[in-house]
Design brief:
Strand order of the largest sheet: 7-6-5-8-9-10
Distance between the termini: 31 Å
Order of helices and strands: HEEEEHEHEEEHEHEHH
Radius of gyration: 17 Å
Shape: globular
Number of helices: 7
Helix content: 25-40%
Strand content: 15-25%
C-alpha cells in the first residue's frame, strides 16, 4: 500500500521533490520535499486509490471505530469519502470554535464514549492533529487513533504523538515516496539519502548541495 499510494501522489504531483532547489516552509526550514494532498481530490484515479486505502486501513487497524472525524480543512473530504465507503458516520473538527451560532468546534453528531478515528492528510510535527485529538477527548470521545495519508516521519512528530498517547497509521511516508521517485528516475538514487537526512534532522541543512 505504501508504494502504491506513494506512486499515485508522485504521478499527480501532489508530492514535489527538489533536493537541489529546496522549498522554504513557513517556519523557515529548507525542505527538499513539498506535499499538497488537496490535489488528490482533483484526480479521480488517485482519489479512488487513496480513499479506498483509508477505508481499508480504518477497518483493518481500528475495527471498533464508530465515527470518522476529519481535520479542518484538509481532512474533511477524505473523512467524508472514506466514511461513505465504510457506511460510517463522520464529522470534522474546526481549528477553533465558531464565534457565532452554537459556537461549535466539533461539527456533526458525536456522543460521549464514541470510538473515533481521526482522518488527517499530512503529519509533519504533529501539533495540529494532536490538537484535534485533544478536542475530541475533551468532548468525551474515545480516540482510537489517526489515519493519515502521508507522514514525514520526523522525530518531533513521533515524540509528540507518543506523548499524547495517540497512534497514527499513515498510508505512505517520506521513505516510500523517495524510493518510488528514485525507481522512476524523478530523483537520483543518491538523493534518497539526502531526503532521509533532512527527515532525520530538518534543522541540519548539510544535505543541501551534498
Amino acid at each position: 500500500m505504501e508504494k502504491k499510494v506513494a506512486k499515485a501522489l508522485l504521478e499527480i504531483k501532489a508530492v514535489f521533490l527538489r533536493p537541489d532547489e529546496p522549498f522554504t516552509w513557513a517556519s523557515g526550514i529548507k525542505s527538499p520535499i513539498y506535499c499538497d494532498n488537496r490535489l488528490i481530490l482533483t484526480s479521480p484515479e488517485a482519489r479512488n486509490i487513496v480513499e479506498q486505502a483509508i477505508a481499508d486501513t480504518v477497518k483493518r487497524e481500528y475495527p471498533e471505530a464508530e465515527v470518522l472525524m476529519g481535520t479542518s480543512t484538509a481532512g474533511i473530504a477524505h473523512a467524508a469519502i472514506a466514511a461513505h465507503l465504510i457506511g460510517m458516520p463522520m464529522g470534522y473538527v474546526r481549528g477553533a470554535a465558531k464565534d457565532h451560532g452554537r459556537q461549535n468546534r466539533i461539527e456533526g453528531r458525536l456522543e460521549k464514549g464514541q470510538k473515533v478515528v481521526v482522518i488527517e492528510d499530512l503529519i509533519s510535527t504533529g501539533g495540529s492533529v494532536i490538537d484535534v485529538v485533544e478536542a475530541l477527548r475533551e468532548a468525551g470521545a474515545e480516540v482510537l487513533g489517526i489515519v493519515s495519508i502521508f507522514t514525514y516521519g520526523m522525530q518531533k512528530g513521533l515524540d509528540r504523538l507518543a506523548a499524547a498517547e495517540v497512534r497514527n497509521v499513515s498510508l505512505t511516508n517520506l521513505d516510500a515516496v523517495a524510493e518510488c521517485a528514485a525507481e522512476t528516475g524523478y530523483i537520483k538514487a543518491e538523493d534518497v539519502a539526502r531526503l532521509i537526512k533532512f527527515r532525520n534532522n530538518p534543522s541540519d541543512e548539510s544535505w543541501i548541495g551534498a
